Amino acid sequence: MKSICVFCGSSYGALEDYSDAAKATGTAIAEQGMRLVYGGARVGLMGTVADAALAAGGEVIGVLPNSLKEKEIEHQGLTELHLVGSMHERKAMMADLSDGFIALPGGVGTLEEIFEVWTWGQLGYHEKPCGFLNIAGYYDHLIAFLDHQVQEGFTKTVMRDMAQIAETPEELIGLFKAYSAPATPKWIKKDET
Question: What is the pLDDT of residues 8-18, one digit of tens each?
């Protein structure tokens, strides 16, 4: 595993725990000799994770749409900053540059990003791990809902289990290193309908 992509908020959130987790994540990625790939901003948890990785001697690659340069405020100190034309290009490039995907606390954009790459994994477009860093119980309700989807027959257990859950970045990176994509096909066979 050479690069880990982190999706997270462009704000800091209500708890200092979230910033602490972003710092710990950036540091852990760098200390394990991996590159950080992220959204290219210097604000909120995005800036915090990048600054921590850089401070720990790591490489940091940012990918930022031109339309968000001023809103998300591009980070000037990165190893590489790629400016792209759209959010679609941003997500595609981040996915191409990464070997795994972590969702730190964040808003709708963070959820959209992690759900998209997780869906790509379920469809067999890649075999890269995806996971949620559940800081201070931030994702507890979401995890319960994902389990509810399985109970209600909308998600197979093997697909739900593709999403790794951990409370520390070191634990999540360890799960990523041991990850093996499921061999079970997602689709229901015609005779099962």
Answer: 999 999 999 99
- Kindly report the number of other CB atoms within 10 A of residue 163's CB atom: 21
Q: Are 8 and 49 in contact (CB under 8 A)?
A: yes
Assess contact for 4 and 100: CB atoms under 8 A.
Answer: yes
Amino acid in the structure at residue 104:
L
Class of residue 75 by CB neighbours under 10 A (exposed 0-12, middle 13-18, buried 19+) = buried
Q: For residues 154 and 163, give the distance between their C-alpha atoms in angstroms, rounded to a whole number.
A: 15
- What distance in Å separates the CA atoms of residue 191 and residue 107, rounded to the nearest whole number? 40
Neighbours of 16 (CB within 10 A): 10
3-state secondary structure of 46: helix
Does residue 130 contact residue 164 with C-beta atoms inside 8 Å?
yes
Q: Are 41 and 189 in contact (CB under 8 A)?
A: no
Tell me if the pTM is above 0.70: yes
pLDDT band at residue 184, thresholds of 50, 70 and 90? low
